[in-house]
Structure formats: C-alpha cells, structure tokens
Amino acid sequence: MTDTEKEIREILNKEFEPLHLEVIDESHLHAGHMGYREGVSTHFRVTIVSEKFEGLMPIKQHKLVNAALKEQLEGDVHALAMKTIKASKWQG
User: Fold this and answer.
1) What are the domain boundaries of the chain?
2) What is the pLDDT of residue 39?
3) Cα separations (Å) of 14 from 27, 28, 52?
4) How far is CA 15 from CA 39, 45, 48, in A?
5) Span 3-89: which CATH code?
6) For the residues 82-87, what does the mean pLDDT come to?
C-alpha cells in the first residue's frame, strides 16, 4: 500500500465512517498517459458505502468525496474514479 493510498483511506474512514471502503491504486494502468508519473501514485479507484450519502444525489455524494480529498487532488492524485453507495442500498 502506498502512502497516498493509506492517506486516502484514513481521510475517507474519518469523514464518512464507511460500511465498506475499497481504495485501489491503478496508477500502473496509466503509464504513458497524461498525469502519469513514474513511481508516483496518481490514479485511484474508490468504492465507498456510507450512511452520509442518504438523501443525496450521486453528484452531491461525489462532491463530498472530492471535497474530503481536495488536498490530494490538488497534489499528486491526477484521477479519482469513484462509486458511492448509500448504506440503505448496500448489499455487501
């Protein structure tokens, strides 16, 4: 696990108290593409299930995640693919 991946996990756990959280570093899949930097974690895929998403449209859920990770997105993280799920819809 990279430092950036660990940082993203810690922030999302603190902010959203998720029932389920996956953070996958997909940087290696983007070699040669814009935003890729050798040896730097730049591309992530997140799946997060939280009660804090209840009553919110997906775009608002994504905005909350982006706001929580603002510092990372302004830093090394070039791309963040995410799937947000309301706790009431989780079938994990």
Assistant:
1) 3-89
2) 60
3) 24, 27, 12
4) 28, 18, 11
5) 3.30.300.90
6) 98
